[in-house]
Amino acid sequence: FPELHAAVPGLPLSSSRVLPGIVLRRDFAAYCPTDGELRALLVTEPLRPALTVPGVEFVVDSEGQYQASLRWITERTEALMKHLQSNNVKLLLSSVKQEDIVIYYAKLYGVSVVECLSSEEMALISEITGVSPYVPYGDTMDREITETAVVTFCQPLLLVSRRCVHIGFASVCAFQPHCLILCGPVHGVNEQHAAALQEAFTMLQQLFKTVDQ
């Protein structure tokens, strides 16, 4: 329930509504508008390549080596974004904050990015889509990316003064997510309404379990 409702203080209760899909309460780190269905990728690690693996010391002996290392990072980041573009990936949903170079090349190659998703949001998206987070294959950039989710729409949503991301997913299960936009004059009233609704849904779940048995 916490991931499927958004409380919006400062509006009358009559402004409440139900939206298809889910609403992520954060803004795009990069937004590239696109029409129709698109492919989304879940990631749980920075996409900027590291110069070494954990526990291994990387020593730079000269300014030339340092500049060469920066060029390698830039080239690998661009190559990854080209690889995503060639696999029709238009949306990155990341549980971590991506570095500026990733956002730069995402914008350059038409890939929208949403960062800092919670573990609960990532788990919900995985449940809806049946997709696990993507792990880049080291130096391999020629394999097809199969860990993609189908997104039916992806657009900004303004809730009073807060910028959010509104996404619709093609669900692989019977669960068709919808998000409740719960409006009220002040935050405390919204909390009361949200708690009452959650209790009502819990009661209905228990009722249907009893009927099924």
TrEMBL record:
Protein name per UniProt: BBS10 protein
Gene3D superfamilies, alphabetized: GroEL, TCP-1-like chaperonin intermediate domain
Organism: Pheucticus melanocephalus (Black-headed grosbeak)
Swiss-Prot/TrEMBL GO biological process terms: chaperone-mediated protein complex assembly
Lineage of origin: Eukaryota, Metazoa, Chordata, Craniata, Vertebrata
InterPro entries: BBS10, GroEL-like_apical_dom_sf, TCP-1-like_intermed_sf
